């Protein structure tokens, strides 16, 4: 019974850290794009903004999974690593957004908020998931 309790505490703790990281990721994407994500996605049904946010969540999810896997049962160390690597992932995703914006024509923030589907958003989404995977593998 004690083992079950420890596993429940670990699952709840990792969930809270993961959700906090996803909230920070949401805020960062909201800052990087013109307008408000809540309006763009839930009211205007903007697919570009939705794809970008989804890729950010998936990338952060990979980092959280990697941190849990690498924790080897040490809950405190695992939670700290998850938070640190999650913040590194958010910073790396932000940097990838800025670098991609500098290397490509147009302003990525404007492309993301465009009401018409734009293929450049998929490139940015790929970057977010790839960066999340790279940071997650750095934990191994």
Automatic annotation (TrEMBL):
Q: What is its main location?
A: membrane
Which spans are transmembrane here? 7-29, 49-71, 78-100, 120-139
Record's Gene Ontology CC terms? plasma membrane
Arranged from A to Z, the UniProt key words for this protein are: Cell membrane, Membrane, Transmembrane, Transmembrane helix
What is the topology of this protein in the membrane according to its UniProt annotation? Answer: Multi-pass membrane protein
InterPro entries linked: DUF350
* Location relative to the cell: Cell membrane
Name of the featured protein: DUF350 domain-containing protein
Any one Pfam family match given in the protein's UniProt record, by short name: DUF350
Which family is this sequence assigned to?
Answer: Belongs to the UPF0719 family.
